[in-house]
Amino acid sequence: MGIPRNLALAVALAAGGICALGATPAEARVNVDIYANVAPPPLRTEVVPGPRAGYIWVPGDWRWGHRRYNWHRGYWTRDRHGRHWAPSRWEQDGNRWRYHSGRWDR
Questions:
Q1: b/e per residue, 4-29, with b = 16+ CB within 10 A?
Q2: Exposure of 38 in the CB half-sphere (CA atoms within 13 A)
Q3: Which alpha helices (DSSP H) does 1-106 contain, by range?
Q4: Rounded Cα gap, residues 13 and 30, in angstroms
Q5: What one-character DSSP code corresponds to residue 68?
Q6: By the 8 A CB rule, do 61 and 78 touch?
Q7: What pLDDT, in 10s, does the model give residues 5-63?
Q8: CB neighbour list of residue 104: distance below 8 Å, 6 or more residues apart
Q9: Is 81 exposed, middle or buried (0-12, 13-18, 19+ CB in 10 A)?
C-alpha cells in the first residue's frame, strides 16, 4: 500500500517551504529571454495617479505573446529601501527585438 495522498501532499509542501526559506527574492528571480521579429509599438501615454507614500509607479509596457504585442498597464508597487526601479525595455538585437523586464537595482 502506498503513502496516503494527504501525507504525500503535506510532505511535498513542507519540502517546498523549507527550500523557499533559503531563497531571497533576488535569488529566486528567473530570467526568460523573449524575442520578437517586429519592433514594438510606441509606448502609450498613461495618466499616472497621484503619489502614494511608500510606493512607486511602474509604467506600462508592451509585451510579446500569442504572436503579437499586448499592452500591460502601469501599476503601483511597494518601494524597496536602498533600491531603484529599472523599467522594462525593448532592445534591438540584430533583426529581432529582445525584451528586458523591469527590475529592482541597487
A1: eeeeeeeeeeeeeeeeeeeeeeeeee
A2: 10
A3: 5-21, 25-28
A4: 21
A5: E
A6: no
A7: 555 555 554 555 544 444 445 545 566 788 999 999 999 999 999 999 999 999 999 99
A8: 26, 80, 83, 84, 85, 86
A9: exposed
